[in-house]
Structure formats: C-alpha cells, structure tokens
Design goal:
The complex is a heterodimer of chains A (121) and B (551). With 121 residues, chain A is of the alpha+beta class. Helix content of chain A is 31%, strand content 36%. The longest helix of chain A is centred in the last third of the chain and has 20 residues, at 82-101. Mean pLDDT of chain B is 84; it is low at 322-329. In chain B, the strands form four sheets. Chain B has a six-stranded mixed β-sheet. In chain B, strands 2-3-1-4 form a four-stranded antiparallel β-sheet, with helices on both faces. A four-stranded parallel β-sheet of chain B has the order 6-5-7-8, sandwiched between helices. Chain B is built from 22 helices and 16 strands. The chains are: A alpha+beta (121), B alpha/beta (551). At the A-B interface, helix 1, strand 3, helix 2 and helix 3 of A face helix 5, helix 6, helix 19 and strand 15 of B.
C-alpha cells in the first residue's frame, strides 16, 4: 500500500513503510514511551528478526478511502500519566508527518500494550 | 545567613513560590516552544502541572519533607499536562522517592534527590533527545552532587545549581538543531530554570528576579517568526513582502501617549506576523508588511526609531529555494559497505539493508582479491567496510583491503546470516574501529544453518554421506544427512535451536525451494518450537536449498 501525490512534475509515491518509520521514529523520541510492542501478525520483516531496533514495528498504517489512520502499539513507563503520554505521541506523530510528508492524518490511535516497571533497589 | 537544613515547611514554600514564578513567565516560555511540536504551550503545560502539585502541597501542613515530597509527586502526576509536564512529574517522582524517609534535607540529600529525579525521568524514554529539559535537569543534578560535597549551606548550593542549569540551558541550541535554527533555548529547560529560580528566592528570602522578560525578547521574536514560516510556501504566496523590525524609544511628551493595545491593533491592519513587546521606555516591533514605510511613519508618532531592519522576504525566499537546488554535487561518501552475496533475493536484501556494492559470489564462485579491490574503489567512500560472508573469501577480502588506499576494514563474516547481522549493527555515526567491533560482535550472535546436497559419496565428521543425499550444516559443520530433504532440515534445526535462548528463525529460500517445502518446515516449527518466530525470505540462492539464521 502506498500513497500517491500528484504535482506539476509528476507523481510521488510514499509507501506505508515510510509513514510507519517516521511515525515510529517520532514515537520513540516521545517522552514516556519505553518501547514499541509488536503484535505478532504485524512483525516487520528481517530487521526485527535480527534484533535490530526496529522503530516501525508496532505501527499499522491504514488507508480507508482517502483518509489515513495510524495505529500504534506502545509500552509506557510506570508512573507517567498515561493519557498525557498518549496525547503527546498523537500530537507529535501528527505534526511530524505533516511537516515531513505534508500528509494529514485522520487519526492516530494509541494502544497501550504494556507498562514497564523499573524498580530501583 | 546560611541554611543548613530544609524542612517540610520551607520545601512546601519553595514549591508554591516556584509555581507562581512559573505562572508569571508562562507566556515567555510558551513563546520559546518550537520543539517537539511548535504549538507554544510548554509554559502553560508546565504551569498547570506544577500548580496541580502546589495545590496538593498547600492542603497539607507537614513539617516532614518526605511527606511533602510524596504529596507533591502525586499532585504532579495527576495534573501532568503535555510533554514537559510529564517530564516534570517524573523528575519530582524520583526526587520524592529519594527523600521519602527524610525529616529534613541537607545539601547532600537534596543533590541526591535531584539525581534520582533525573534517573527516573531518563528511564521513561526510549531515546532521550538531548538539548531539552532532560539535559538541563541532568546537568543541574550533576552540578548539585559535586557542590554538595563542598557546602552545607543551601543558599550557596542552590545558587550553584541554578547557575549550572542556566549554563546548560544556554547550551541547548548546540545540542538540538531546531533550536539553533530558530535561535532560541529550549522552552522546557527554561521552565525548569524558572522553577529553580523560585527555589532559590525562597531560600534567600528575596523577591524574585524579573530577569526573564527582557533577556529573552530577542528569542521570543525569533521563535514567533519561525512559527509563522515553518511551512513550505511558494515565493508568490508571500502576501506581505517585507520583514520589518525596529524599536521605538518612547518619548513622553509626544502628542499620543503610547498604548500597546491600540498600537497593536493599528499595525495589525498593515501586515502579519506582528509582535509588539513593550516596556516603559522601549517598544520592540516585528511585522511583515507590504508597505514598511507606512508602518515606520506611524511608529514615529510615539518616539524615535532605533535598530531599524527591513528585509525583502521574496528575494530571500527565492534565494533559499535557489540554494537548495545548487547543492547537488557528487562527493565522496563518508562510509560504504562492500559485501559478497549469491542469489538475487539475497543481493536485494543486502542492498535494502544499506550495502553500497554487492559482489556476486559465494560458494564455488569466489570473487578474487582484484574483484574485491575493484568493488572497494567503486564504492568511493572515505571509510569502507567489507563483509565477505564466506570463510573462503575472508582472506581475499583482507588482501584486497591492504591493496587499496584509504581506510578499509574487513568484518570476517563467514555466512550470509552473519553478514546480515553485521550490516544491521552498522552505524554511520560511529568510527571505523567501533563499527568494526560492533559488527564483529553482532555477526557472532547469529547461528547459521544451511541445507544442500552431496555431490559425491564421502565421510565427514563421522557421518556417512551418499551422493545425492541432503546435508544439514550448522555453522560450517555437517551435522545431519538424509535422503529426505525435510528430514535433513528438521534434524538440523533440532540440533541448532536452543529454546531458552533463541527467539527467531529467518529462512532464506534457495532456487530449488518450493512453497510446499516451506510450509512443511513452518508446520514442523509450529509443532516443535511453538515459541519461535519464523520469517521467510526469498533468497533465490543456488546450491543451498535453505539458509537458516537462528538467534
């Protein structure tokens, strides 16, 4: 799946991978996120296989008619205000995609898949 | 006056005052907000967060500083708003945990608590971005720990912490390019400095400094300016062509007394991106106008003009767009990776992982030293890493590395999976030595299984192998043989997979592999190793029906 943009010189095709990579890259820099959770059926190819930190895992880009929806599966840190962390991710992802690709995203859905507790001795 | 100990009452006071101080500087901090999203709400968010904490603190009357900390952390968590608010709540969560059992705080306690706050805050982010509030908090905490060794007096201590926090804040543009581009310091960091200022003022028993507004006018204007113009636009779309900046030295005896609001409204009709910052005797104005002369004439009603600067933005924009087009030159790349592979699928995979040159070759078709040397030259980079991916090619690769000029290092990968693993450990920002080290380490993490057939009768490693039989090879050693391909495969996998340690099997299918076989292998995996993840890629390699990478 990909997104096509038309301009005066021709066509620009942006694959969903690009969108999910940018969304993922933005997400990992967001405060409060300690990981992306990959859902099994979303496994993301060789990179993850070989344990490369793959920021696009746990991200699904869906295109419904002309609207773009992004689902993100994340793990947050214990002790943060989760609703706020999620809101920040939504804002940041939306902003970055519009800045880098000029894409307007209809919805960024956040699924909190886990909470990481780091207990200090 | 010196303060040796901070009790609950004082600490509570510090929180209340810093919340108020933050509230007073909210707008200034908002205006600096260009990262991560330039929505100009950092100050507001931090203020709401800290106010929520302060409200909780206000309702209790504890002398015990640990208890105040606990109440504060709870209030901050509940009221956390925005990115910076969440970070602030984390900083104080760690802080309050560290002081939980303390009645009063020495400078050492305080420093340790700041440090604990920073540790907690850093734990909650995967990839911390430096040049933000996190950096300022970290630098301040480090300074605090050092200073606490020397002094017992909280005033002297806090002064030092604040100075270092401010210094760190000034360094944020060096760490975060977007800040530098806009010419501002980090807004969250500024917020934290403001909090520390509140702390210090309580300790000193002095009124708060009114520093911020004046110092940062320049930055505010830059930030506002940036926000208006970050979007792409065409030169023709610029409606108001002149970026106009000037200051008015107010003269009291002028006919019209200066009223900021009237002034702003009047100029608002002349253009956009308007910014007016006024104090008693100076007004700084920034506006994008089509007729700057009219703006200046109007402004002169209030006093004399200084520091006038007018720029034609259409010209600027055209030249920016032009510059961007010029910058296409062929330059020597910083890094290149040269690798050897056989099979169109594998070749493609290496290319997609970032290999610059893929030499065709592998088992029974080894590239020569010259082939490799040519490939290295073709790669045209300052530093080059070579991945031979076969133990028979390692030597040739090392010779080739000696032959050519420049910095070349060979990562002695002995199989395709090792090569892929090494590729993934590559980082363009690292030195050649570091990359080499990391890539060697990564290549050793993966186990390689291969399945092929025997071309003649033989006996190796105690196994009788008949011509035409299938062999399973684990990391270069033949471990299974069978007339039946699938049996050879399952034996091989059984011998290689350690269920406690391995998680992933990547299968590269060869030229002669069939879909039925692949699904049989998948079925076998599901039955025997249900926790393992499997990924199948079309390698299209000759000779080896299957290559397995196991980690």
């Amino acid at each position: 799946m990909s997104i096509n943009l038309q301009n005066e010189y021709g066509e620009v095709t942006i694959s969903n991978d690009v969108i999910s990579t940018i969304a993922g890259g933005t997400a990992v820099e967001c405060y409060g996120i300690v990981g992306m959770a990959s859902k099994k059926q979303l496994r993301d190819g060789i990179a993850e296989m070989l344990r490369k930190e793959n920021i696009a895992k746990g991200i699904v880009v869906r295109q419904e008619e002309n609207e773009l929806h992004i689902d993100m599966y994340i793990i947050v840190s214990y002790g943060t205000k989760i609703s706020e962390v999620a809101l920040n991710v939504q804002n940041q992802v939306k902003y970055t995609l519009s800045k880098m690709l000029g894409l307007s995203v209809e919805s960024v859905n956040i699924f909190i898949q886990g909470v990481q507790v780091t207990q200090k001795a | 006056m010196t303060i040796q100990k901070i009790d609950g009452t004082t600490f509570g006071q510090m929180i209340l005052v810093s919340a108020e101080h933050l509230s007073n500087h909210r707008e200034m901090i908002d205006s600096l907000n260009v990262f991560p999203v330039p929505d100009g709400d950092t100050g507001t968010n931090m203020n709401l967060t800290l106010t929520s904490g302060a409200n909780e603190v206000e309702q209790v009357d504890h002398k015990h500083v640990g208890q105040i900390g606990e109440v504060l952390a709870k209030g901050l968590l509940m009221g956390a708003r925005g990115n910076s608010g969440v970070i602030l709540s984390q900083l104080f969560r760690g802080f309050s945990k560290a002081i939980r059992d303390k009645e009063t705080l020495t400078t050492k306690n305080f420093a340790e608590a700041l440090q604990a706050g920073v540790e907690t805050a850093y734990k909650a982010v995967m990839k911390p971005v430096e040049g933000t509030i996190l950096t300022v908090a970290k630098d301040a905490a480090n300074a605090a720990v050092e200073k606490a060794e020397e002094v017992d007096d909280h005033i002297e201590f806090m002064e030092h912490v604040l100075t270092e926090a401010k210094a760190s804040l000034q360094r944020t543009p060096e760490l975060l390019p977007v800040l530098k581009e806009v010419g501002v310091v980090d807004s969250g960091g500024q917020g934290l400095v403001t909090v520390y200022e509140g702390f210090l003022s309580v300790l000193k028993g002095e009124a708060l400094p009114t520093y911020a507004n004046k110092v940062n006018v320049e930055q505010m204007i830059n930030a506002e300016h940036h926000k208006m113009h970050q979007d792409f636009m065409n030169t023709e779309d610029i409606e108001f062509g002149y970026c106009t900046e000037f200051m008015i030295k107010l003269e009291r005896d002028k006919e019209h007394p200066f009223k900021e609001e009237d002034f702003r409204n009047r100029l608002g009709n002349q253009g956009d991106s308007l910014l007016v910052v006024a104090d008693d005797d100076l007004v700084k104005v920034h506006i994008h106008a089509e007729y700057p002369g009219e703006v200046l004439t109007y402004a002169q009603n209030y006093g004399s003009l200084v520091n006038v600067k007018i720029e034609n933005m259409r010209e600027q924009h055209t030249s920016i767009v032009g510059d961007a087009k010029k910058e296409e030159k062929v330059v020597m790349a910083e890094y290149a990776i040269v690798t050897v592979a056989l099979g169109s699928g594998i070749k493609e995979m290496f290319e997609s992982l970032g290999a610059n040159v893929v030499i065709e070759g592998g088992q029974t078709m080894n590239p020569s030293t010259q082939d490799i040397a040519n490939a290295i030259q073709k790669a045209n980079a300052k530093r080059i890493l070579v991945l031979p991916n076969n133990k028979n090619i390692v030597m040739a690769a090392e010779q080739a590395a000696d032959l050519v000029e420049g910095e070349v290092a060979v990562v002695p990968t002995k199989s395709i999976p090792q090569g892929m693993s090494a590729m993934l450990a590559f980082h363009p920002d690292r030195s050649l030595e570091d990359n080499h080290k990391e890539m060697v380490a990564a290549s050793e993490e993966v186990k390689t299984g291969q399945v092929t057939y025997a071309v003649r009768d033989t006996q190796i490693d105690g196994l009788e192998i008949a011509k035409g039989n299938f062999m399973g090879i684990a990391d270069g050693k033949i471990t299974s043989t069978s007339k039946n391909k699938l049996e050879a495969i399952t034996q091989l996998l059984q011998g290689m997979i350690e269920e406690d340690e391995d998680e992933i099997v990547t299968i590269l299918t060869g030229e002669d592999a069939t879909d039925e076989e692949v699904s049989e292998i998948e079925q076998y995996m599901e039955e025997h190793f249900e926790d393992m993840e499997i990924e199948v890629h079309n390698g299209n390699q000759p000779i080896y029906s299957y290559i397995f990478a196991i980690e």
